[in-house]
């Protein structure tokens, strides 16, 4: 897969969370995902974890569901690249 | 008069707003137009493939909801069909009542009492279908939409309801029982405003279940006819805003009707079949009349449960004869399920809205006429006691002087609920 990790994450967010009216390229790398910015919530986080685990073949532990890792596409990307 | 000292005397409760989603579309206007035209919304449907089932009709909410309304909420993508129906009906009802939503915290005190039979069952079915075929396509978020309390909770969340929020799930009596609970809460002063109703969506569980029981007819529902048939599935939601009559008048709003009384009973007879004597259903109607402080002679029409099944219609007719005596043969019936199908946990709620609309417009809606599309099963028609055909309306019946009406909901498990609505004629509270 030639697609870079941040773009794969953005595509996953839009597809797995069924975000209407949002295209992957509209999500900025550093923009907050939860609360402000994209406005995702805790149920979205659970769906996103499942999608990320399938897409990247990794396991994400509950204690890793912290705000830092999931704060932006950029932080998620760093976390995933450290695992794969 | 039997109940002069009851709370019903102290606090009359008005219906100040109504909202509905049905096979006729999103809103009360398409509902009333469809009911009044007497054209059934029961037809082939798309929600799921009916090929594996015995029957192939339902009154489906086919069109997309109007843009802008509830769809603007961030959560829309995650809400079940039943949640979406409920939320849109609630927004319409609250707007119609002239109340500002979302409600400000604790002023007024608002509660939600809601009925549902299956909540997000359809979404759960979709999840498990994906889970067993291609796990990667199974959305865990669909499971969050599964809960039977989902529709009532969605209303509370989006309208800022911070008072009591409760869901009743007693099969097809759910909606009417929820309205009864809301009536009690408004009378007692527990809340200033109650949003009460129900929501259910088509799903394979109920579609297959009622089919397995042979409680669904291949043709469209034709209750209380000599060649009756039923039931037929429907889906949708209905919400009524209930407030003390004095509060509605004080804020200069126009009551649509008065919810005068509610009653409930149980047949304690069978898992799915009604007690054929109708005594349980009669007890619920008698209790509702007593609660309203009205004699049977004050009732001018009945919105019957009228599923069209041989067992229901026969037992219900027996119940009406017990309550109304010989007058039962002259009481016009409104048979809403013949038009929007059976909304299960929301049936009592949408039929309450239909009853309010009939009182408000001074006109009773008809049931579809014409020939029955599928002949009755062999021997079936002969076993049914004849029902007076004059009860069933083939065209709208003007009844501007109608004083009050009873709506019945008779459920699996023998749960019976009845509501009494009175016309608002402009007199002082």
Can you describe what's shown?
The complex is a heterodimer of chains A (84) and B (429). By secondary structure, chain A is mainly alpha-helical. Chain A contains three helices and no strands. In chain A, helix 1 (5-16) packs across helix 2 (42-56) and helix 1 crosses helix 3 (73-83). The mean pLDDT of chain A is 87. Chain B has one domain: Thiolase/Chalcone synthase (Peroxisomal Thiolase, Chain A, domain 1). The chains are: A mainly alpha (84), B alpha/beta (429). Chain A binds chain B through residues 16-20, 39, 43-44, 46-47, 50, 54, and chain B through 74, 76-78, 136, 139-141, 144.
* Spatial separation of the terminal alpha carbons of chain A: 13 Å
The helix fraction of chain A, in percent, is 40-55%
Helix-strand topology string of chain A: HHH
Oligomeric nature of the chains = heterodimer
Question: What's this, in brief?
Answer:
The complex is a heterodimer of chains A (84) and B (429). Chain A has helices spanning 5-16, 42-56, 73-83.
Topology:
The complex is a heterodimer of chains A (84) and B (429).
Chain A: H1 5-16, H2 42-56, H3 73-83
Chain B: H1 7-10, E1 13-22, E2 25-26, H2 28-37, E3 58-59, H3 81-96, E4 110-115, H4 121-133, H5 141-144, H6 150-159, E5 165-168, H7 174-188, E6 193-200, H8 204-212, E7 233-234, E8 236-244, H9 245-250, E9 257-266, H10 279-292, E10 301-303, H11 310-324, E11 333-334, H12 337-340, H13 347-361, E12 363-364, H14 380-383, E13 397-398, E14 404-410, E15 415-423
Parallel strand pairs in B: 3-7, 4-5, 4-6, 10-11, 10-14
Antiparallel strand pairs in B: 1-2, 1-8, 1-9, 6-8, 9-15, 12-13, 14-15
Helix pairs in contact in B: 3-6, 7-13, 10-11
Descriptive tags:
heterodimer, A: about 80 residues, mainly alpha, 3 helices, globular, B: about 425 residues, alpha/beta, Peroxisomal Thiolase, Chain A, domain 1, eleven-stranded mixed beta sheet, two-stranded parallel ribbon, 14 helices, disordered N terminus
